[in-house]
């Protein structure tokens, strides 16, 4: 006899708006309970694996841990890119401030290139002080926005790390309980 139940094993974290395009897939298993004629039972997952209830708990938690590890890796990669972008923007802003003209001047080529690559309007020809200051303010605004995003991502990374630590601690506890159970069973078999 088989009792079929569907149990989504989703990690207890709602995706943030920035993660809506996340490539990390949440774990989702269908679990069926299979009863044997002798009264014992086991659990079968949608990927064809069979487990006792203790083993199933460990398996599901390991899937959740993998999800958190993947999310954490994705966040760390994003933070590394943000650090590189922050450094680039800081250099461009410093360059713009150092080369501020007293009259008219051409925008530095690397600044114009960065702005073009990031979908920002770049005036061609010589810029007057007002246009130059406008470009500088645009760079400052982008840097402020990046700082804000970086702070949010850093907090999310810290939260993911904390949750992953909790899952790993739970997994260690389950593993200890399983080991103690096996030791007790083996001890009882030897004693009989």
Write the layout of secondary structure elements.
Layout lengths: L1 E6 L21 E7 L5 E5 L4 E2 L1 H46 L6 E2 L2 H9 L8 E2 L1 H63 L1
Antiparallel strand pairs: 1-2, 2-3, 3-4, 5-6
Helix pairs in contact: 1-3
Describe this entry's structure for a reader.
The chain has 192 residues and is an alpha+beta fold. It has one domain (2-191). The protein has 3 helices and 6 strands. A hairpin with a 5-residue loop joins strand 2 and strand 3. The radius of gyration is 28 Å and the shape is rod-shaped. The chain starts with a strand and ends with a helix.
What would you say about this model in short?
By secondary structure, this protein is of the alpha+beta class.
Keywords, please?
192 residues; 4-stranded antiparallel β-sheet; 3 helices; 6 strands; rod-shaped
Rg for CA atoms: 28 Å
Distance between the termini: 33 Å
- Sheet with most strands: strand arrangement: 1-2-3-4
Strand coverage percent: 5-15%
Mean pLDDT: 82
The protein's oligomeric status is: single chain
Low-confidence stretches: 1-21
Reading the helices and strands in chain order gives EEEEHEHEH
Helix content: 55-70%
- Which structural category do the helix and sheet elements fall into? alpha+beta
Largest sheet: 4 strands, antiparallel
- Counting DSSP H or I runs of 4 or more residues, the number of helices is 3
Give the overall form.
rod-shaped
Q: In the residues, how many domains can be counted? A: 1
| DSSP, total strands | 6
